[in-house]
Amino acid sequence: MSLSRETQTRLQESIEKMAKNFVTAEETRVTDFFIKVNGENGDLTIMDDDDNSLARVHIIEWEGVHDERVFEKELRSILGKMNEAGTFDNLNIAKPYSFVLVDDDSQPIVDLLIVDDDTLILSADLLEGFDEEMNAFLKELLEE
User: Fold this and answer.
1) Considering its fold, how many domains does the chain have in total?
2) What is the mean pLDDT of each run of 10 residues along the chain (144 residues)?
3) How far, in whole angstroms, is CA 28 from its chain's centroid?
4) What global pTM score does this model have?
């Protein structure tokens, strides 16, 4: 299930607006951004470490959706594109910090994006089949 272009834009604009609040002269105490999606009503809330609401947006396509993988896929894609575009470059937040998808009890489900100069998150899709490829490579190497 993919979000409409309009919904993606609205979600991105909400995240950008939230991020602009952290472009200040002083470094903030925020260490992570927690994203909670209510699958019943489609509300997405971004919170800080103290559970203060920083942004809220309604995603009509997510009403009645309870599969966290749907949220993860879309959010990871949007946040990744925003990071590549430099949206998070000027935030006065000590690195590393992350965007974390959390459940209804605010328990972490998955890191969606870690913002750090030296950290790269590899997705499960990228690593799919890696074991088999590595085993075939080692077998071929040892046979030579």
Assistant:
1) 1
2) 88 93 74 93 93 93 91 93 91 88 92 79 60 83 80
3) 20
4) 0.77
My answer on whether omega of the bond before 96 falls inside 30° of 0, hence cis, is yes
CB atoms within 10 A of CB 71: 22
Cβ contacts of residue 15 below 8 Å, gap of 6+?
A: 46, 55, 78, 79, 82, 87
Q: Under DSSP, is residue 128 helix (H, G, I), strand (E, B) or coil? A: coil
Token code pair at residue 83: 């990071």
DSSP notation for 66-85: --HHHHHHHHHHHHHHHHHT
Range of the domain at 44: 5-116
Any idea which residue has 């990228």 for tokens?
A: 126
